[in-house]
Design goal:
With 314 residues, the chain is α/β, with parallel strands linked by helices. It is 39% helix and 17% strand. It contains 10 helices and 13 strands. α4 (84-105) runs parallel beside α5 and α6 packs parallel to α8. It starts with a strand and ends in a 6-residue tail after the last helix. The structure holds nicotinamide-adenine-dinucleotide (NAD) and uridine-5'-diphosphate (UDP). Nicotinamide-adenine-dinucleotide binds next to α1, α4 and β5.
Amino acid sequence: MRILVTGGAGFIGSHLCERLVGEGHDVICLDNFFTGNKRNIEPLLDNHRFELIRHDIVEPILLEVDQIYNLACPASPIHYQYNPVKTVKTSVMGSINMLGLAKRVRARILQASTSEIYGDPKIHPQTEDYWGNVNPIGVRSCYDEGKRVAETLMMDYHRQNGVDVRIIRIFNTYGPRMAENDGRVVSNFVLQALKGEDITVYGKGKQTRSFCYVSDLVDGMIRMMNCPGFIGPVNLGNPAETTILEFAERIIALTGSKSKIVFKPLPADDPKQRQPNIDLAKTKLDWEPRVAVEDGLKQTIDYFASIINGNCCK
Ligand code: NAD
Ligand code: UDP
């Protein structure tokens, strides 16, 4: 198949491109390099099945493809809040452009949605039928509401135009190729621990997250894209829930670091708890995460250590 991956030079997108090329598909990676990095896709650049296009999905584009994975969107709070209007445009106008393309060339399109559409959830763990608790005017809304509209657009293009859509709601995912500067908790804690710097826990660290290793996520994405007759939305994540304070302690232990934990103010609207219910993914996709958090963290620590030592990256 010929497959378009928007945001393909980013963290998750680059792993997806690699897997799809490995499965024998022709992959077009489209990216504006806002948070993506050529280094992420460097091993693929010589592969005749791989093509790279520098393009912004806010502008229309016509490509002949069979499937579209729409991942283009900054994902870390500091990056999506850097230019919030652009973040909304990427989710809304970008999704309209990609859905228009899917409609025109009759491609199937998968939207990378997020657990953020549940906001600061009042239902725990989160199931797909929960409508969420999102602040529409807060600093996270450009991302949360943008992603919610993108889901709406997917469903409306499906109902109105018969576009073949898939929606996945990704929970916190981590692994090699996360950007060093994106401020997310895994990259921050691992880099701080490796450099012997203070580990910055926001608030009291009692808030929870559930971390999924990137290879598991990519496996779920591909299953969902190729699942007949099921459009979602479906949660994809690892139900192994941890408080952020426990997570900091775990990373200190795994790295053997002498770093100390320090407490910093909690950012606005930071969700207090987050854990996916993945029963639907288990039933419909026969999918569940396989990589234990310790194992995934070791791979991630090795990756960041290689960045620090200047001998990155494959
Ligand atoms: P990332 O920032 O590494 O990747 C996003 C990619 O999209 C980057 O390569 C960036 O340059 C590109 N991009 C951004 N705006 C664009 C635009 N207007 N046009 C073209 N390209 C653009 O983030 P990631 O963690 O790999 O996330 C990928 C997708 O998965 C995002 O849509 C994100 O919202 C979603 N997601 C990620 C997580 C997670 O934990 N990583 C959780 C939920 C949802
Ligand atoms: N966090 C933290 N220290 C950091 C970075 C993040 O305590 O240096 C916390 C943050 O407040 C949040 C959690 O870790 O509660 C996950 O943050 P991240 O930005 O990775 O993802 P999100 O909040 O979007 O789930």
